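fold-stage: in
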Amino acid sequence: MSKKKPRRPAAVTPTSPCPCGREATYRDCCGACHQGRAAAPTAERLMRSRYSAFVVGDAGYLLRTWHPTTRPAGLEFVSGQRWTGLEILGTTGGSAFHSEGTVEFRAHYTLQGHAESQYENSRFVREDGRWVYVDALPAA
């Protein structure tokens, strides 16, 4: 019996379902944030748009939405890593009425044929009216 190789997901197009899991096309959802046509209105939406940026390989967006005190000089994506799904596990604050918020999530991916996931509870703040990613909170 032969083992099947994991299928590479189709490229994300403007009319594809958004990788973040919301019921919208990529163009109308996270693509609008990536292209600067919209700003994420909540910390959760910023988290979703950042996940989608990993899916489509948009390092520029990830860096632009990272707080300047914790932003790295650059980003390199892991070769062969394919992001396959996002679960939002919980949020605190992060609405239009807050200046801080957290988003707890699990991002699923495959790497070298193995299904894996990354868990994080991310901290976000509003900087000049826009949500930005600060860092991951330490595990409890």
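fold-stage: in (second)
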Amino acid sequence: MSTERRVHLSRSARPAYDALEAFSQTVGTIAADAGIDARLRELVLIHASQLNGCAYCVRVHVDRAVAAGLTADDIAQLATWRESGIFTARERAALELAECYVFIHEEGVPDEVYDRVGGILSEKEYVAVSWLLISINAFNRLTIAGKYPVPPRSGEKTDGGAGSGTA
């Protein structure tokens, strides 16, 4: 089945999508009430979406991150967060937890990660970040399965994937 002919799940079963959207709103409220600010929320959602390979959700959350004040450097450093010195202990804990939720089928949340993250995040923060990750993983699966398009923005040029030839 081609991308153009794929069933659009969010349109084809609108009540299920609306429930997922309502769930996401509830999770956002839980996160805000737990003190998860927009910066931390968007870092975690972008990183999970990157790891899942969801270009659509990466774009959505990069746009939200920029609107929340994150810089291009903040976003670019996500790929190397362990080596980067720009993230706080809370952000690093949340990013590590994000990796566990994306790859939950491998080890779940290992005890050492649970203990390390739990030593940095409060229980309310841990719960909130966990629910954010459960929510974004659901959205990632929806958009990946549906092959939601991520075309160039107007005015952007593409070279069809060829490199510039410079290092």
